[in-house]
Structures are given as C-alpha cells and as structure tokens.
Amino acid sequence: MIAPLIDSFGRRHNNLRLSVTDRCNLRCTYCMPEEVEFLPKDHLLSFEELTRIATVAASLGVDKLRLTGGEPLLRQNLDRLVRMLVAIPGVRDIGLTTNGMLLEKLAGPLFDAGLRRLNVSLDSIDEGQFRILTRRQGVEHVLAGIAAAKRIGFDSIKINAVAIKGTTETQVVPLARYCLENGLELRFIEFMPLEADGVWDRSKVLTAEEILSILAEAGLEANPSPDADPNAPAEEFIYSSGGKLGIIGSVSRPFCASCNRLRLTAEGKLRNCLFSLEETDLRGPLREGADDGAIRSIFRAVVADKWAGHQINSPTYIRPLRTMHAIGG
C-alpha cells in the first residue's frame, strides 16, 4: 500500500483541482485583466497527460477531482476527459467549476460522460451588475445553463458568488432567494487578494459575518449546520426556513488548518496552495518520460513543502504573481 499525501501539519490531501485551460469568455474584475495573452495550445496538458497525473494522484489517495479554468467549457471535447477521469480506480468524486455561459449546450454531454457535480460562478442575477463585474453581457445564458443542468439531472449544483463590499451587497439577498426558489446551494466567497487590476483593498472584503447579517435582516437567518464537513472550504449553514448556504471566509475565517487541496495549472504546474509563491513543473517530466514513481515523488515533495496557512492576514503577506484565471479556480 502506498502511503497517502500527508503534510508536516498532519493534513491529508485527497483533493486535486485540474485546470484545463487559462482561457475565458468573461473578464471578471477580481479574476483577470481585460487584455490578456493566453497560453499556446501546445503548452496545455493533453487529456492523456491530465489523466496520467490524476491516476498517479489517485494511487496516493486522491479521490476527489475538480475541473477548472479559466473557463473549462472552452476546452473542446471536455466530455471525453470526464469519461477518462471517471474510469480511474479510486476516484469517487468529480466536479466542475464553470461560469455557465456555455452550460446550456454542454450540460447533457458532460452528464452522459459521468459528471454529477457542478459549481457555477454567478455574482449577480442583475444584467447591469453582471456586466460591471464580468465586463461582458450574458447573465441570461448562465441562468439558462443552470436550468438546463437541473432538467438533465445534476443533483448537486452550487452557485459561487464573490462578495465584494461596495459592489455586491445588493446581490446577497436576490441571489439567496433565487437559489432557495430553484433548489440550489449558494456559496459566498470573500473577496481575496488575487485581483487583476490595482492593489487589493481589504476594505472591499464583504465578510462572512456581514453576509449573514444582511441575510438575517431580510428574514433569511441562517445557522451553522450540525452536519458540516470539517474538510470543506465553506462553512455550512441551514436557513431557518430550510435550504443550505455556504460561506468561504478565506480572509476573515481561514480554513487553512483543514485544507486538503492541491492545484494543477493548465500548463502542468503543481501548487500546494492557491496563494503559493512557488510551483513545481509536471509537464516537463511527463514529456521527458518520467515513470509513475518519479511523479509520485514530485507530489510528495510539493505536499511536504506546504505552509501552515496563506498569510493573507499577516503583514508579511506577498501576493502571488499569477491571477486567478492562470492558477485555476
């Protein structure tokens, strides 16, 4: 039996996020600049390379995979990759994070390939606000994609909403009501220092406490869930009237002590933290003929180097050079 991936703080890593592209059809202000140069196609990992890495990771105890981007639905024939990943022994859970713009067309093929869990990024259901945040139009396409996924049979659809003070407070309640009415689980994400333009302004963080207060004032009081997953990044709540809510308080309520995640960028860089200042190349060794043992050693070294936490709240915090679209959501 091969020993699992346990870091120096005793955290077991069983969750790998696989970015399949850095391209996106939106330009969310907190994620990427308006003008950006994307990776050449031959720099991206092939489906076979992604599957090889995921298979080696599974042999080390990784049983949860999530496909990310950029916008992963821009990667052609993504359903083929899903079929390849579903077949990996030991993998029990595969999810996908998308902005939903192409979901109406692609939800069916992805479901048929074996995908069952979706996270849809949606910060506003108001077209004007959506356009301000994403620099593009098309909230109706996202809403249509979510509706299509529900019709097709996806039994787990979560809505991810970045919470930015001075920008999205007015959307907290409408999003909550939309999700409750449609049987979706809303997850607010505190605004993090990975923005593309300018210097991160901490005063723009709409905190978990503030979000809960806004909801309570609107008659949507939520209390901690008694059955919360201790390894989940989101604090889990239950509305008094029923329905689930999650809040990822990366700034005000960090979950680093229970983090079980690793990230692979679209061009094959392995990262042990979203805010890591270092990353390790896997594409080079793969294309040079490295065997599984060598790939396992890279995984172990990356996990061994993982720090205790992201340091956002420390005066010594250094922002990563990459923006979110280039790391993988």
SSE map:
Elements: E1 15-19, H1 47-59, E2 64-68, H2 78-86, E3 93-98, H3 103-113, E4 117-121, H4 127-134, H5 139-152, E5 156-163, H6 169-181, E6 185-190, H7 208-217, E7 222-224, E8 235-239, E9 244-248, E10 261-264, E11 269-271, E12 280-281, H8 283-287, H9 292-304, H10 324-327
Parallel strand pairs: 1-2, 1-10, 2-3, 3-4, 4-5, 5-6, 6-9
Antiparallel strand pairs: 7-8, 8-9, 10-11, 11-12
- Cα-atom Rg, whole angstroms? 19 Å
Overall body shape = globular
Give the amount of beta strand, in percent.
Answer: 15-25%
Examine the secondary-structure arrangement and name the CATH architecture: Alpha-Beta Barrel
Count of helical regions: 10
Key structural traits:
329 residues, alpha/beta, 12 strands, single chain, TIM Barrel
Commentary on this structure:
- The chain is an alpha/beta fold and 329 residues long.
- It has one domain (15-327): Aldolase class I (TIM Barrel, Alpha-Beta Barrel), CATH 3.20.20.70.
- Helices cover 30% and strands 17% of the residues.
- It contains 10 helices and 12 strands.
- The protein has helices spanning 47-59, 78-86, 103-113, 127-134, 139-152, 169-181, 208-217, 283-287, 292-304, 324-327, and strands spanning 15-19, 64-68, 93-98, 117-121, 156-163, 185-190, 222-224, 235-239, 244-248, 261-264, 269-271, 280-281.
- The chain has a 12-stranded mixed sheet.
- The chain starts with 14 loop residues before the first strand and ends with a helix.
